[in-house]
Amino acid sequence: MPKTLAVVAIGGNAVNKPKESATAENMFRNLSVTAEYLMQMLKDEYELVITHGNGPQVGNILIQQEAGKEKIPPFTIDLNDAQTQGSLGYAIALTLRNALLQANHPREICSVITQIVVDPKDPAFQNPTKPIGPFYSEEEGKRIQEEKGWVFVEDTGRGWRRVVPSPIPLDIIEKKAIKQLVKAGIITIAAGGGGIPVNRLPDGSLQGVEAVIDKDRASALLALELNADMFIILTGVEKVYSDYGKPTQKAFDTLTVEEANRYLHGGQFPKGSMGPKIEAAIAYVSKTGKRCLITAMETLGDALKGKTGTWIVN
Which of 99, 155, 158, 257 would give a disulfide with 35, using CB separation of 3.0 to 4.6 Å? Predict the structure, then answer.
């Protein structure tokens, strides 16, 4: 019987907990816990392709670069995306390999640095909205904006931050290599942090772009390219809710694509949290007729048994 191929997008909580110090020790400890949950899927005969976010990690690199800019010029965001893909891919592969060893369940793992094509005419480039990096005073933000041409906005009373475009992912450069790895039965880590955004030039060559792709959208594209049997988005909540945090809060066991679209356009799923996850789920389910699960890491096992979580269905 063929195994079920699942693309699993792990959220930021899998790497660093909210308000937790962003140390390497904390990262490895958290990912070791994450590996145990993924191990259960492997024991249950799932094939896994793992994707991950990188927002906090890219932000931390930008803060480090800002502090050391007088000695070493800061890198562009596409290079920072690549750095976090490498470091987080390594950490996920190491902790999962150790969990496999502990369980006497040997498997090969490969982390793929993934480039994702975006359209240079994407409206996102005219309207950057994704906050990244350190906070500045209004005066300093405006000075840097004038010097470098970056766009700064005031971020919820915490200070001024740079915002960058978040374009729609269109194609995955390494998709053939990823498909070969999956076919060979190798656990694959790919499209980390939404992938490294690149433009494809008229002669076919590639050029890095200063942008950040939403990791759930990139994960949905990867699940489509792989014809995955299932798409799983792991986040900080057990289920999807309407009126989240209000007395009228309601949890969903299932949402049809039509219902999810209606709630999305009704403003129930904010852009900065559940919105992109619902959009990614809709994109995958509507094009494949298959299912997408949204749940927390801690409830993954029960959700796969139908006991909790929210399933997006046609």
Answer: 99
